[in-house]
Amino acid sequence: MNKNPIGIFDSGVGGLTVWKHIHQLLPNEKLIYLADSLHCPYGAKSAEEIIELSRANTRFLLNKGCKLIVVACNTATASAIETLRAEFSVPFVGMEPAVKPAAQNTNTGKIGILATKGTFEGRLFKETSQKYAQGIDTLIQIGEGLVELVENNEMDSEKGRKLLVSYINPMIDAGVDQIVLGCTHYPFFIPLLKQLVPKSIQIIDPAPAIALRTKNILLELGTQSSLTTVLPEFYSTGDTKVIDLLVTKITGKSYPATKIDLT
Ligand code: DGL
Fold first, then answer.
1. Spatial separation of the C-alpha atoms in residues 104 and 147, rounded to whole Å
2. How far is the CA of 129 from the centre of ligand 1 (A)?
3. Domains of the chain by range and CATH?
4. Per-residue pLDDT reduced to its tens digit, 103-149
5. In this predicted model, what pLDDT tens digit does every residue of 159-180 receive, in sequence order?
6. Distance between CA 29 and CA 14 in Å, rounded?
7. What is the best residue among 33, 93, 116 to mutate for testing ligand 1's pocket, by most ligand atoms within 8 Å of CB?
């Protein structure tokens, strides 16, 4: 039993797609979310830069007393999770593209993965693909420009539709039956994706599995909380307008984010 909060960070608002599932599965846990929107996107930054930013995000959450940290960002996980685990004693939950379930579910033997450059270049993605997707035709696509659209709350824009079509159509034409969303910003496009992708293709968002993993770690460590009144907290290093809008869209309530400076 431990009433301390769970910390969740992302390069920006994308990790809210993970926050939502953790909030649903663990309603008695206090959640502190940090969006590093000032430095978003992380996708094309060097591993060194991402490690430095991830350290700063972690320190902020630890100062808030967090008992566990969810790195709700595939890109930060790819570059920084090993360093974070080595340097901080708190447990970390990371994200990686859901190659394993996609490879297990496919009937056509072809899967598509949409993620950032940083995620595809990370060791984790290469190792997971080698381990679980041997003999599976894996089509990878960098989702250039998609993160920026989400950060500006332009998920329903014509620009978004055009970009998605250009990324997804080659996968559809190649015969994939699984499309993995390997960046936590991308599930915000699911309503649009459902219009663009045939029903026979499954869109995989790993967030529910991450929420379950978080729950299991708390249970294993005996650090789950049973708080009955929990107010979530949101922080951003950038403009708070979009995070406030998206939180209200997800929760139906208003929890205004606090702007912070981590430099
Ligand atoms: N949400 C991050 C991820 O899951 C965002 C990437 C970025 O900032 O480029 O990879």
1. 28
2. 19
3. 6-95+208-259 (3.40.50.1860), 99-205 (3.40.50.1860)
4. 999 999 999 999 999 999 999 999 999 999 999 999 999 999 999 99
5. 999 999 999 999 999 999 999 9
6. 20
7. 116
